[in-house]
């Protein structure tokens, strides 16, 4: 998926993922004051003029952005369902269904879907998250119809055959072993998230608990598909050098006849707040480096009573760790030298409450507690002293620039549109976000720091090496 | 927070595992007839520095890549030196502290990055072209930072510490352990054999003198290529390139290294690790970028184990039909002194031997019989149609350009790509495959839990 190019070799995947979201959202901001100095340059023009939104009679939402720059087109189908819609006992079902969607549909059995896309040079994948599941293809711009034809067939007629099910479940268990079980940080994070979100549906990892995966059945999978995969629960997003009217006609042709279905009611859960600090200690035999992560529970854009607080929190997160000379990297890595890596993340664009997380690797000779103390000092600083006008404008400039940088990718644009719509906001949030963020003041940042970055509202996980006496791990330190 | 899951394994896993930045021919080099590919402007500056430029005016940004033949292969007896030197380039220059540099770049919203693989050291700048002063200032700062690095002892010590930490983190994962052992076994005493991060002990041994010497030897006009992609006119690009060029010392020519020797015997290394999943890397010494069989092998690997599609033989048989893995793929990596042919897969410990047998059988059949006619047609169609999709945004264009420039492909390589794919015959694919893949001479590294392990902590036990 589009996150590919943002991976770097020195950072773990989860950080990158989170960073991407942060970039897409937080940073998708700000009217291009910068760009007006050069009127000849076709920059961040009004996206409303090139973005078209339609709703088909069967409830399918279609959003098309005409971006003439690229020889490619990206087509994404979003379903407003993810792991946060799972019940206990069948965790991982949303993601396993996503895998099964690649195992054929009525008119394209077996791996014909993949063959047809590959033959046209296309690139495809899918992703499952807390609140949504998304399938995409990137193709040359004149091949969009192929994507629609195939996606429409699996929206209405996925085969979900028992004969493939056991094998695909094995694949997913291997995925879990690869991405979680044998990655000390990811495994820690799983426990950490479950601790930070006690009653919130994000408590459960998207990939599911291993013991649940072992019991999932094809019947569970079919039921989940029937409940949630309907045109009125889907958003089709197309970005590329296309004409919106033509895309609409194509969408009607391929998706128009899929009947609308009643959808389950989503009940908003609550969360258990602040009875005190939650601290988790994890020991892992594969780890040689200690690592610590902390989270404050915060409102998301959708749960906030006052959305302006969310924009202030976005700015606060940028102040902390949003760019190379921001406070955490500059003060803790470069000046105090007590951590070798540190980053902060806040993803306000999700259905339920969000977290602001900070994660750090202490440098040699420094303890996790020293690092926690230093982070605490940075937080206290934000609470007691307003940031300077100069720093505030640097933060905003970073956001403008990243907005421009982000626009280089059609996949990044499509992701932003689809994700906002999938959680129940309008894609135009990314447009208004610009002025919302520009309106944030130093006073507001200080106010949200005081209100939310409270020690009673914190979860901490400490990952430490488990001392192993055996000599069998000799390679580890070489 | 980690919560996003994909159906198809991302190739990034592979890149990390293998340590070559290039996702290899399997992933990256392709093209069609009908689409206009970006036009490359190529010239040399007064200092005889090669410049490659592509004008791309749709967004007000420009990417500048300075590419040095200064990867870890040039570490000599000091593994980790190339990496450390490269990382220190943003850590202070004559008259400017690390913090001053960081703040200046951030105040201009310019992004500065460094990276190293076995062949190359790269320093990149991404900046906005909207405000003339910002454009000029950021490029000027970029030039200073790269050519006047100060390498202060304090910053050296800190970067060493961070490099050790990165290395440790890599070795916490079975994939990292496997990659390190695989390259060691594959390249033996060739400079590609060590990890670009170095080893804990060799990082300790690095001194400021080593770094200064490496910097003097490799960060020179003779040893750099300038690649520019973005919103500049040709005149502006000439100006930028000339300005950057003039800041480099001419330097001495560097000594080319010898090519890696072919793998002659099969070899298996088993490494015990606290893991519930066995990681395997299997392969042999591969090809140079100028390999005559380049296109037949590109097609061959697309059929065999390309990780960008869900239709390779490996994906179909090992994953779809047998459900043994989430990720399995093969690729030929690009590298000056012969890259690697590598197969990677991960599967739970209990079925690792079965998976290995299954993979070996697949490979032997493929090498003996070659692909079918239908597979050839489908692979060509994929490669040709996929080619323009490698040029959809500035970053990917810049990456393609860097590969083309560094490995000295002809300037019309992109234009002729399609023709070169099209003319490959079934027989050529079959022969090239047999020439370059030897199922009886493979290096295997297998990282798994110790048999009958008593070390498996409860954390790693499945419930």
What does this molecule look like?
The complex is a heterodimer of chains A (478) and B (463). By secondary structure, chain A is an alpha+beta fold. Chain A contains 17 helices and eleven strands. In chain A, the strands form two sheets. A six-stranded mixed beta sheet of chain A has the order 1-2-6-3-5-4, with helices on both faces. Chain B is an alpha+beta fold. Chain B has 17 helices and twelve strands. In chain B, strand 10 and strand 11 form a beta hairpin. The two termini of chain B are 23 Å apart. The chains are: A alpha+beta (478), B alpha+beta (463).
List the helices and strands and how they pair.
The complex is a heterodimer of chains A (478) and B (463).
Chain A lengths: L12 H14 L20 H4 E5 L5 E6 L5 E8 L13 H8 L11 H8 L3 E6 L4 E8 L3 H14 L4 H20 L2 H13 L13 H4 L4 H11 L5 E7 L3 H12 L22 E7 L6 E8 L8 H15 L5 H9 L3 E8 L7 E9 L5 H17 L4 H18 L3 H13 L6 H10 L3 H11 L5 E8 L13
Parallel strand pairs in A: 2-6, 7-11
Antiparallel strand pairs in A: 1-2, 3-5, 3-6, 4-5, 8-10, 8-11, 9-10
Helix pairs in contact in A: 3-6, 3-9, 5-10, 11-17, 13-17
Chain B lengths: L4 E2 L4 H8 L5 H5 L12 E4 L5 E6 L5 E8 L12 H7 L10 H10 L3 E6 L4 E8 L3 H16 L5 H18 L3 H14 L12 H6 L2 H11 L5 E7 L3 H12 L21 E6 L4 E9 L8 H11 L8 H9 L6 E5 L7 E9 L3 H18 L3 H14 L7 H13 L6 H10 L3 H11 L6 E6 L15
Parallel strand pairs in B: 3-7, 8-12
Antiparallel strand pairs in B: 2-3, 4-6, 4-7, 5-6, 9-11, 9-12, 10-11
- What is the N-to-C order of secondary-structure elements of chain B (H for helix, E for strand)? EHHEEEHHEEHHHHHEHEEHHEEHHHHHE
Give the name of the CATH architecture of the largest domain in chain B.
2-Layer Sandwich
If you consult CATH, what is the topology of the largest domain in chain A? Cytochrome Bc1 Complex, Chain A, domain 1
Rg calc of chain A: 23 Å
What oligomeric arrangement do these chains adopt?
A: heterodimer
Largest sheet of chain A: 6 strands, mixed
CATH class of the largest domain in chain B: Alpha Beta
User: CATH topology of the largest domain in chain B, which one?
Assistant: Cytochrome Bc1 Complex, Chain A, domain 1
Physical arrangement of strands within the biggest beta sheet of chain B: 2-3-7-4-6-5
Strand content of chain A: 15-25%
> How many β strands of chain B by DSSP?
12
Strand order of the largest sheet of chain A: 1-2-6-3-5-4
């Amino acid at each position: 998926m589009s996150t590919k190019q943002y991976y770097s070799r020195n950072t773990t995947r989860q950080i990158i993922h989170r960073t991407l979201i942060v970039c897409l959202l937080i940073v998708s901001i700000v009217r291009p004051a910068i760009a007006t100095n050069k009127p000849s340059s076709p920059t961040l023009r009004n996206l409303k003029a090139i973005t078209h939104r339609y709703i088909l009679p069967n409830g399918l939402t279609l959003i098309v952005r005409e971006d003439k720059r690229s020889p490619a087109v990206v087509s994404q189908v979003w379903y407003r369902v993810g792991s946060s819609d799972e019940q206990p006992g069948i965790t991982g079902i949303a993601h396993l269904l996503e895998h099964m969607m690649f195992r054929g549909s009525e008119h394209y059995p077996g791996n014909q879907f993949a063959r047809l896309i590959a033959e046209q040079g296309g690139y495809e994948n899918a992703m499952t998250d807390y609140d949504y599941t998304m399938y995409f293809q990137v193709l040359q711009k004149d091949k969009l119809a192929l994507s629609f034809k195939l996606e429409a067939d699996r929206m209405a007629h996925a085969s979900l055959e028992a004969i493939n099910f056991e094998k695909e479940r094995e694949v997913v268990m291997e995925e879990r072993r690869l991405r979680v079980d044998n990655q000390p940080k990811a495994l820690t994070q799983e426990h950490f998230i479950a601790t930070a979100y006690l009653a919130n549906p994000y408590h459960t990892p998207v990939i599911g608990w291993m013991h649940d995966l072992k019991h999932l059945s094809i019947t569970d999978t079919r039921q989940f598909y029937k409940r949630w995969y309907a045109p009125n629960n889907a958003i089709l997003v197309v970005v590329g050098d296309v004409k919106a009217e033509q895309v609409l006609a194509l969408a009607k042709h391929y998706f128009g006849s899929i009947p609308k279905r009643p959808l389950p009611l989503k009940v908003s859960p609550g969360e258990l707040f602040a009875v005190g600090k939650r601290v988790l200690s994890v020991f892992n035999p594969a780890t040689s480096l200690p690592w610590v992560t902390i989270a404050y529970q915060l409102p998301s854009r959708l749960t906030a009573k006052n959305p302006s607080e969310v924009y202030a929190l976005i700015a606060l997160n940028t102040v902390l760790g949003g760019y190379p000379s921001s406070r955490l990297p500059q003060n803790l890595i470069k000046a105090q030298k007590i951590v070798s890596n540190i980053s902060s993340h806040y993803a306000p664009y999700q259905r339920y409450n969000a977290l602001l997380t900070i994660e750090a690797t202490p440098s040699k000779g420094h303890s996790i507690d020293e690092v926690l103390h230093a982070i605490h000092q940075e937080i206290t600083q934000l609470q007691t002293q307003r940031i300077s006008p100069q720093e505030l404008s640097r933060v905003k400039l970073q956001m403008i620039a990243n907005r421009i940088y982000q626009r280089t990718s059609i996949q990044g644009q499509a992701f932003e549109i689809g994700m906002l719509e999938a959680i129940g906001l309008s894609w135009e949030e990314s447009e208004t976000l610009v002025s919302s963020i520009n309106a944030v003041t130093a006073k507001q940042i200080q106010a949200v720091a005081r209100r939310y970055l409270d020690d009673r509202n914190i979860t901490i996980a400490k990952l430490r090496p488990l001392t192993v006496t055996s000599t069998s791990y000799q390679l580890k330190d070489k | 927070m980690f919560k996003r899951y994909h159906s198809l394994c991302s190739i990034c896993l592979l890149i990390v595992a293998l340590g070559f930045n290039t996702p290899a021919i399997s992933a990256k080099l392709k093209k069609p007839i009908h689409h206009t590919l970006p036009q490359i402007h190529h010239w040399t500056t007064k200092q005889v520095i090669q410049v490659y430029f592509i004008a791309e005016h749709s967004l007000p940004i420009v990417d500048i890549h300075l590419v040095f033949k200064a990867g870890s292969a040039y570490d000599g007896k000091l593994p980790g030196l190339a990496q450390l030197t490269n990382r220190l380039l943003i850590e202070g220059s004559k008259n400017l502290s690390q913090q001053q540099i960081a703040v200046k770049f951030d105040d201009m919203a310019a992004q500065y990055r460094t990276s190293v693989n076995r062949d190359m050291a790269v320093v990149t700048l991404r900046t906005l072209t909207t405000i003339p002063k910002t454009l000029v200032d950021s490029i000027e700062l970029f030039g200073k930072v790269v050519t006047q690095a100060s390498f202060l002892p304090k910053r050296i010590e800190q970067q060493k510490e961070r490099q050790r930490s990165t290395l440790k983190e890599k070795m916490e994962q079975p994939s990292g352990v496997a990659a390190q052992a695989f390259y060691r076994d594959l390249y033996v005493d060739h400079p590609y054999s060590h990890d670009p991060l170095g080893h804990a002990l060799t990082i300790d041994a690095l001194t400021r003198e080593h770094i200064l010497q490496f910097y003097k030897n490799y960060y020179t006009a003779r040893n750099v290529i300038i690649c520019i992609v973005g919103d500049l006119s040709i005149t502006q690009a000439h100006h930028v390139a000339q300005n950057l060029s003039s800041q480099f010392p001419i330097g001495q020519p560097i000594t080319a290294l010898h090519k890696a020797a072919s793998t002659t015997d099969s070899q298996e290394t088993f490494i015990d690790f606290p893991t519930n999943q066995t990681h395997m890397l299997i392969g042999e010494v591969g090809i140079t970028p100028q390999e005559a069989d380049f296109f037949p092998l590109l097609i061959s690997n697309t059929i065999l184990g390309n990780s960008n599609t869900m239709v390779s033989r490996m994906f179909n048989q090992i994953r779809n039909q047998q459900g043994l893995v989430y990720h399995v793929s093969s690729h030929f990596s690009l590298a000056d002194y012969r890259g690697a042919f590598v197969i990677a897969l991960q599967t739970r410990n209990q079925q690792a031997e079965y998976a290995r047998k299954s993979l070996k059988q697949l490979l032997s059949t493929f090498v003996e019989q070659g692909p079918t006619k239908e597979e050839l047609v489908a692979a060509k169609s994929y490669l040709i149609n996929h080619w323009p999709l490698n040029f959809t945004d500035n970053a990917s264009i810049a990456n393609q350009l860097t590969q083309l420039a560094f490995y000295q492909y002809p300037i019309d390589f992109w234009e002729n790509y399609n023709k070169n794919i099209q003319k490959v015959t079934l027989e050529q694919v079959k022969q090239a495959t047999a020439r370059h893949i030897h199922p009886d001479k493979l290096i295997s590294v297998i990282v798994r839990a110790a048999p009958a392990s008593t070390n498996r902590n409860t954390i790693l036990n499945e419930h």
